[in-house]
Sequence to fold (434 residues):
Amino acid sequence: MRKLFGTDGIRGRAYEYPLTEDIAEKLGYAVAIFSEKPKIVIGRDTRVSGKDFETAVVKGVSKAGGEAILLGILPTPAVAFLTRKLNAGAGIMISASHNPAQDNGLKIFSSKGFKLEDEIEEEIEILMFKEQKEIPNGKITMQTNAKKQYIEFAKSSFNSTMEEIKIVVDCANGAACTVVKDIFSDLKAEVIAINTEKKGNNINCNCGALHTASLREAVIKEKADIGIALDGDADRIIVIDEKGRELDGDYLLYICAKLMKYKGRLKNNTVVSTVMSNAGFDEAMKKEGIIVKSTKVGDKYVIEEMKKNNYSLGGEQSGHIIIADYSTTGDGILCGLEIIKAMKEYNKPLSELADGIQKYPQVLINLPVKEKKDVKQLKSYSLIQKIEKHLKGNGRVLVRYSGTELLLRVMVEAKENADSYAKQIAEELKKELC
Fold:
């Protein structure tokens, strides 16, 4: 049973177990030993603690006799891309994604740029706690053109230019700051980048994919065609249309799926989503004649399903969108480019493209918990069952723990009274868990 890895690598409060420099060093060593080629690509976001964890990972890789290739500050999907491009044995991204600045994390990519399967993470964890003997000839190199390589790669996914398109991009004071302006400007868009201060202690703070108020204001003020909100490592995206409406991953998957089907790029006429997707998304896809396959929450599970059955599009309501034509992981920038392609192809404003989905009201409450007890063993589970039975055919209840934080997520989706049901469930669970 894994002790360190969650649904997206190892994550936690920086310098507190399990996210300590010692663990980072052990991880670097284990990944280098495990990989067929001990050549490990390492990137990070803008967090203050990032440099310390980079130093620790490099120390581990070098101790194992491997080559640590430093990319500096770059988005997570850039690390996945460069792992493949540089023919490395693995990639390690130091980031806690959308989490606050005091957190950090360690994500691992295989030599092919994919997040690791649970079983492989377990093998690496075993290696981390075995005796680690120093192996000579370890070395460190800087990949000085890493930023340029990712920028050119991202631009190559867009087969025209963006004249007369005005874009506001919220960089979340994170890794996207290093590449966003160049990508969109080079494609001839009028681009306004906000939240670009790489202080390290302000990443995701009241900005980015989880906090879109400032982006919405900027889109309306600038009369922009689209607003793109990225998270701290730019692997997820939330979009604001020209009217100021927020479009989550369900809307983005819908728009991308329609375009890809029209262009003959939607393999097996299927899109992969998770159990968090709104019932309105499923209904909209059905109207378009597109099949929906559902997985448990976590973009790595979406990607596993895509790989297994050769699907070309998948994602999460939270904004991790994977377009297999271009990327092996969620990439907020590439998804933003794909949405703009749809706007140009159909010659319609973004709001019209999104109107094909009529969502059920959905309420999500996050409960901080002390420990992750089995919900089915709690007294309050009977209330969940009662509400599920009442909603049958007209909604659903989903209660699950976060894979990256000590949170219990209570989601209720219903045509009526979703807020009331969610609050009832949360109040009962709080008595037993908080």
User: Anything to note?
Assistant: The longest helix spans residues 418-433.
